[in-house]
Amino acid sequence: MTNDTSAASSGARRGGLLPARLRPLSRPRVWVELAFSAALYVAYDCTRSLVPDHRIAAMHRASWIWHAERVLHLDPELAVNHAVNHVRWLIVGMNYYYATLHFVVTLGVLVWLYARHAASYRSARTALYTATLLALIGFTFFALAPPRFLTGDGFVDTVVVHHTWGSWGSGHVSSVSNQYAAMPSVHIVWSTWSGLTLAALAHRTWVRVLGVCYPLATFTVILATANHFVADAVGGALTLAVGFLIQRLLTGRMAYQRVSGDRDRRHGVGEPPTGPDARPAPPADRPATPLTTAGPAERRPAPAITRRPDLQDPPGRRCPARWRGMGASEEQRAAPTRPRWGRQHPDPDGPPSPESRTRSPGPGDGPGDPPRRTSPADLVPGRRVRDRLRLALQMITAALTRK
Q1: Residue 126 resides in a domain
Q2: Residues annotated as region Disordered (predicted)?
Q3: Under DSSP, is residue 358 helix (H, G, I), strand (E, B) or coil?
Q4: Do 123 and 255 contact (CB within 8 A), yes or no?
Q5: Is 52 contained in some domain?
């Protein structure tokens, strides 16, 4: 018993660094998720308090990254920023896109994942929170100014020019935000995570297509609004990849899983189903059926064929020789064969009369020949055909049951 317990414990831990009790597939409690969100906000507020000490260094790093991208010819930021800035309705829409969808889409995907795909929620949430925590560490030790602060290089601050409300650069929002949190891009981290989640778990094709297009649209928006460099987007993608890698090491499973059988969108995995899909629990006194057996399973004997009383043949009727032993009763096997001729009874449901049991002399019968008696089974019209069809069906059923 001790060896079995230790083997099971080691097998449970072999899948991931966390013990099995800390990586279940069931849906977590809501207050636990709210506590995680509050902890992330507190960590972000700590990084915002370090902004005054990093402002000059952040501007120098931004100039260096812009120069490096121009040397490598990976500098589409300025061209995209100027091209979109000429279309007022488009650039204003992108400013609001950058300010709002960043939170709305991510929160909506989290709620959808919690409600519909409980088996994947813990793993996917762990990857997202881990990547966000790594991004906060990057903000602390590598503060970087966005391109819109480099006005001397030709960038247009679209938030200031078009007076967009609610963006990070607006007056009342900038006071509570970290303006130098550009590397890595959290917009890319969250949008890519949302897109991957929808593409992996959504059942409708158009939703999966939207999941693929959403991070690409976000990448275009962060360049057009001059809020991030291309290097910031690459850093965000790498940060999310590291977050998924850490999640895989901790839990030992893929972040996105589809549950076979009943969809986990109805109830969490490990939670008993309720409603019309619920099945009655087995009695408590019934012994549990083992999942595995030591030896090969024993073959159960084929169930005996029971025939309905109303389908029994008359005692005097004998089935053909080729059907013997295939559902025939003992009386039928022992009954002698009788000749099958004679006049049929006019009433199939009534008993045969004594007169109908004798056959009238026919051609070829001598005047002194005694009248021949008929079988009761031959007096009902179609009785022989029905009997043969019924016995053929019983023969097929018996053959299938033996298999």
Answers
A1: yes
A2: 260-386
A3: strand
A4: yes
A5: yes
